[in-house]
Amino acid sequence: MTLSLSIRDVSHHYGDRLVLDSVNLDVPQQSITAIIGPSGVGKTTLLRLIGGFETPDRGRIEVEGEVVAENSRLVIPPQSRGVTIVPQDGALFSHLSVGGNVAFGLKNRRSAAARARVKEVLEIVGLDRYEKHRPSQLSGGMQQRVALARALAPHPRVVLLDEPFAALDAGLHEQVREETVRALRATNATAVWVTHDQEEALSTADQVAVMIAGRIQQLASPADLYQFPVSRQVAEFVGDVFVIAGTSVGSGDHVRCALGDMVPISRACPNGPANIVVRPEQLSIVQDGAAGSVSVQVVGSKFFGHDGIVEGTFSTGERVVIRLQADQLPQIGSRVGVVARGSLLAYSD
């Protein structure tokens, strides 16, 4: 596997506050890596270090095998790294045309080769008819696509995207996101994408890094991250879950909990007390008293159109959440049977 970006044991402080703590990350060529995590855990700081806007206190950053920063030393300046960035607000030059903005980072930007490259990337992002327009004449989504074209124009080794669609409304957000992914794939770009949107990360990235407390807690494919989170903390951050108490039994591959006495789990857990992490879509509703089911009192429901959420309580008093098709939502106050499907997640105390 050829890497476009390699980060080794990178730490960084702001004053006395440790923001990044021994971060390690490998990004393969021609891939999209999403970085997710709570606010304030260092995601944007990591992008700034990769881009060369700041220098790590400790550790090493390599771009295509070339050391660009190491142990408080700026080895290669930002403009020479082959790393470009798409910021949240696009940051376009209002006095330049769309074509002028895209050409800004190119060498000999008035040359025939530069003009051809501008036309090429504008066509890739679907804005080739707007080359002569000013940014103020474009919608917010179109301006972000211009910012992406500008980032792609110099054939970068790595493209950084920092919450690039945060200012867009929901419908436009999804449209521009899909167009951005198509453009990145069409140009075989390597991208590192910081986002708060887990759905965005899981649906677009080749690998997802979960950053919590200044460290990357897990780096995995979207499917592996969702199905096999390495810790309860990661499991609770990625997707919707609820947690119930249990005990790991047998060979550590089953648990005893409110859902049953021998419920299979997807990863071995040492015998003893365990936290059982359940995703709402892992449960089904059957008739109360049906074989293999446990009884749940329905205390609430939420209708979303395409599906819905049922909230209830087990006999233990613990909360349960179940995701169902919208036409299957039971009445509040009724009792239903609940069964678990597949293997659950369990983590030792």
Structure description:
This protein is globular. It contains eight helices and 21 strands. Helix 3 packs across helix 4 (140-152) and helix 4 (140-152) packs parallel to helix 5. The model has no long low-confidence stretch (mean pLDDT 93). The longest helix is centred in the middle third of the chain and has 17 residues, at 170-186. The protein is of the alpha+beta class and 349 residues long. The two termini are 37 Å apart.
Summarize the structure.
With 349 residues, this protein is of the alpha+beta class.
Strand content: 35-45%
| Whole-number count of domains | 2
Structural class: alpha+beta
- Rg computed from alpha carbons, rounded to a whole number of angstroms: 24 Å
**Helix proportion:** 10-25%
Shape: globular
Going by CATH, the homologous superfamily of the largest domain would be P-loop containing nucleotide triphosphate hydrolases
Spatial sequence of strands, sheet with the most strands: 7-8-9-3-10-11
Number of helices: 8
CATH overall fold name of the largest domain: Rossmann fold
Mean pLDDT: 93
The biggest beta sheet, please? 6 strands, mixed
Spans where pLDDT lies below 50 across 5 or more residues: none
N-to-C SSE series? EEEHEEEEHHHEHEHEEHHEEEEEEEEEE
| Highest-level CATH class of the largest domain | Alpha Beta
Terminal CA distance = 37 Å
- CATH architecture label of the largest domain: 3-Layer(aba) Sandwich
How many beta-strand runs? 21
